[in-house]
């Protein structure tokens, strides 16, 4: 380990460290033996506690080295992502990581849309139904929504069972509609469907499921038209609701950003249970597109970036354990390192290792630490946000969630540092992903993609949605700071992350309006 310590200390002083040296140090830290840590036989309880904390600190230090995200490494991650993006645009299957799926959305919202529209947003362990009353001139006259948790058995069941559950929820929501909102007696309604799983679209209102992610595993729905499955379920509910737009949740978020923000919105990004991003690409850069190019000259591309993987991703043993226990081992590396479904499990595995190898919580390993999903990302978020001198929130979470009682400040400090480490890594890696997209479209650094630049600094907006980004404030701060570091202050563009609340749902309703069958025949 002497070379490892030397390399890292050199890096911390800003000396000439190569990326090869940093990666070597990180790999050595992962492989370093954690057994053989000192114990003191016959020592007093206080002395043993000191030794335990010391041993735990050593292990945490090794984890920090393995999970480090210095700026040079983030740039390497971004460049690797750009390489996969280009390969995925060149030909179908050109990248085995990024789907780079073209969107059939041709009419982004303009603000002129009018009427009553619905949306269903299936984005993770919860789904939302939403009603939007548009008054034209960019006005939203009213907005209502309801969020429902999806029972675990439906996430791994059949397509019919899942969509019957969602369709019946939508039907109940439609039944609450105030008739005063609309003068028409005709109860035909149109809805957008935000579906945040990989789909190969065949039109603006049809597409076949490629695979399930984020803990879903519904095998009988793969390869089938997801809109038809949902439309059939709506028909069984006895309601007249037509799905007029199928959109990925990121595309919905991008559409909402275009509707709400004056500045130019070029990227939509979700950071919630899972993660994904889409962006506006030059149509002629999509070499695999065989149909007529859109008149706008632009095309919205859905990356499906959760499956991105690279040797530059700073993985730890905990990431390997989480991957092994997931429903899709070997897939979705990036998602499993940055999204809300997995951060709690990563921290749990780290705490379990500290409990086993350093006896951090005493000679007996707390049983809850051996239980999968016992520590959720919402708990990690609470711990991470605790800035009190005694870390009392950390103590409460450990007591109530993991049944670890009477913790010392030193133990709580270590737990807090693990949550900070995992949150920092996740936020900074997400920023590296966005920076890669910005580089691809010429919005960061020299112009290499054909977008015209002027001497006047312009604004680029990334429309953000997802509970992790919205509620995990330290994660969000790490992400925003890292993106600013990567973009720098001397480029031609300023980049801002803007929260688009209910972005995917609102965007789906707006796209239902902009693609309304009735509007197109007027």
Structure report:
The protein has helices at about 1-10, 20-30, 45-65, 70-90, 150-155, 160-175, 225-235, 250-260, 315-325, 335-340, 340-355, 375-385, 390-400, 410-440, 465-470, 475-485, 505-515, 515-520; strands at about 100, 115-120, 125-135, 140-150, 190-195, 200-205, 205-210, 240-245, 265-270, 275-280, 300, 460-465, 495-500. The chain has 2 domains: about 50-105 and about 260-445 and about 455-500, Hexokinase, domain 1, CATH 3.40.367.20; about 105-245, ATPase, nucleotide binding domain (Nucleotidyltransferase, domain 5). With about 525 residues, it is an alpha/beta fold. It is built from 18 helices and 13 strands. The strands form 3 sheets. A 6-stranded mixed beta sheet has the order 1-11-10-9-12-13, sandwiched between helices. A 5-stranded mixed beta sheet has the order 4-3-2-5-8.
